[in-house]
């Protein structure tokens, strides 16, 4: 046990102040009082005096929509609570403060031969944010983030401090994993890790000529890989619909790679400060997608972890390329058997000439017990579209209807626009979740813009 040696992290505490906050998509910014607790006592103080508009936690602001915003209320930024508290090398478990980023965690763990079980498409998320959204990654076989949380500490307005694990407090555990910060503030968590031999990935790259070809390749070969992702050119039409580059990988063994074991997070260039809306148009994006498809070289490569898991982190602040109006990321999942919904969405998007960089297709082998967790066994498609485009709202509404009819759902951590009446259908355990949540926060102290927009907590009618 390395223990207190690892305790630390720079505590960047700022005075409480007003700030305009948005999600990663940069749509719908709102103003809130931002408080950065230096430790648990500060945090309890901020929760005890919530003010009329309530409180919500904010990690690194990588949710695309309004989940970590609270218009006119208070936002608790967790970045100063970012230490590694304990590493149990025998068990492969690490205990961290919830504001720690996965990037910092990997820098600590990888040289010691450990890796988080689930990582998303960016390394710049906090552990608290990863639990609250119950994030998923390319790891199709091993569920989502909460599946690998041994226990966490939760500060709640109603029941004070709780230490929660899935065995003894299953309701609180699974209401919080995926609960979008509305059950309490996670302050520390113990995570189960996986051993790795190297800091490299053995990656196989293939090109698929269309959607059928892609899904066939995935059905036939995914079992051989821990991580799978397909990048689809969603401007390709007709017989090319769904043409894509499939990348699948496993952690490289010591035989495959003999170099040093260090996590290098990619951050090479900064995106230009602001693109005018319109510079990204179907033509420029089509050229980009075309060039990208041609450049992909089928075969085996030994790749850095950062390049494989977090290619978007290569460009710092890339969310600014969509211009001042920002962008929407649309991500849904549909069960196996509803492959047609994936096809129809690609058809509709390509017909509408909806300028989008590559769409990402992944799959989940299983769901977990999270009331509001996103993954179900099936296919998930995610793509970015510039906000404010004529017809976009109607198009996405129609896609939602198709997704709902197939028993699917959109991902709350990405959402900025779904119709609230669809939420109880997409998330049929919403009432069960509300019962658990209300016991933890009987007076509705925990509120966010996401909650008000979709009435997740059911408190829009109460107040
Ligand atoms: C480039 C990019 C790629 C991404 N790829 C993926 C992906 O592959 N898979 C995936 O699942 N997601 C993905 N995401 C989304 C991201 O993983 C989630 O939105 C995650 O929740 C962001 O963490 P954060 O620390 O930035 O949290 P924030 O965005 O700050 O907050 C997100 C939610 O977590 C809550 N929260 C934050 N900290 C705490 C805490 N300590 N206690 C309680 N609640 C808390 C907030 O209240 C809010 O509801 C991606 C995002 C980006 C920008």
């Amino acid at each position: 046990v390395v223990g207190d040696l690892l305790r630390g992290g720079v505590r960047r505490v700022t005075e409480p102040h007003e700030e305009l906050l948005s999600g990663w998509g940069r749509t719908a910014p709102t103003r809130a009082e931002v408080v950065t607790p230096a430790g648990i006592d500060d945090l309890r103080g901020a929760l005890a005096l919530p003010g009329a508009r309530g409180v919500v936690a904010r990690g690194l602001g990588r949710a695309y929509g309004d989940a970590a915003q609270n218009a006119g209320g208070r936002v608790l930024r967790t970045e100063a609570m970012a230490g590694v508290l304990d590493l149990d090398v025998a068990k492969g478990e690490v205990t961290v403060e919830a504001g720690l980023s996965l990037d910092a965690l990997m820098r600590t763990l990888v040289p010691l031969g450990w890796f988080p079980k689930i990582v998303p498409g960016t390394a710049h998320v906090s552990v608290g944010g990863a639990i609250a959204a119950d994030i998923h990654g390319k790891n199709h076989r091993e569920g989502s983030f909460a599946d690998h949380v041994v226990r966490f500490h939760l500060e709640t307005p109603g029941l004070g401090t709780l230490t929660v694990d899935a065995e003894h407090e299953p309701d609180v555990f699974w209401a919080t994993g995926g609960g979008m910060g509305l059950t309490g503030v996670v302050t520390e968590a113990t995570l189960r890790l996986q051993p790795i031999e190297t800091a490299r990935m053995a990656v196989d790259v293939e090109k698929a000529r269309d959607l059928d070809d892609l899904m066939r390749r995935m059905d036939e070969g995914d079992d051989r890989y821990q991580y799978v992702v397909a990048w689809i050119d969603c401007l390709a039409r007709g017989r090319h619909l769904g043409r894509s580059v499939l990348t699948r990988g496993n952690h490289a063994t010591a035989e495959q790679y003999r170099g040093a074991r260090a996590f290098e997070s990619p951050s090479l260039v900064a995106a230009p400060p602001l693109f005018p809306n319109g510079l990204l148009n179907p033509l420029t994006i089509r050229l980009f997608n075309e060039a990208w498809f041609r450049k992909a070289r089928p075969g085996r490569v030994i790749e850095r972890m950062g390049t494989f898991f977090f290619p978007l982190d290569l460009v710092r602040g890339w969310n600014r390329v969509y211009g001042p109006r920002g962008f929407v990321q649309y991500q849904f999942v549909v069960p196996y058997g509803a492959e047609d919904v994936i096809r129809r969405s690609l058809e509709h998007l390509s017909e509408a000439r909806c300028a989008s960089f590559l769409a990402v297709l992944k799959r989940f082998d299983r769901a977990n017990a999270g009331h509001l967790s996103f993954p179900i066994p099936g296919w998930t498609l995610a793509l970015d579209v510039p906000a404010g485009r004529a017809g976009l709202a109607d198009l996405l509404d129609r896609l939602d209807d198709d997704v709902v009819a197939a028993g699917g759902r959109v991902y709350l951590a990405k959402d900025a626009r779904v119709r609230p009446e669809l939420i109880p259908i997409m998330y049929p355990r919403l009432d069960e979740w509300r019962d658990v949540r209300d016991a933890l926060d009987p007076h509705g102290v925990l509120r966010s813009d996401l909650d008000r927009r979709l009435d997740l907590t059911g408190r829009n009618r109460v107040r």
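Residues 1-10 have pLDDT under 50 and may be disordered. DSSP finds twelve helices and 20 strands in the chain.
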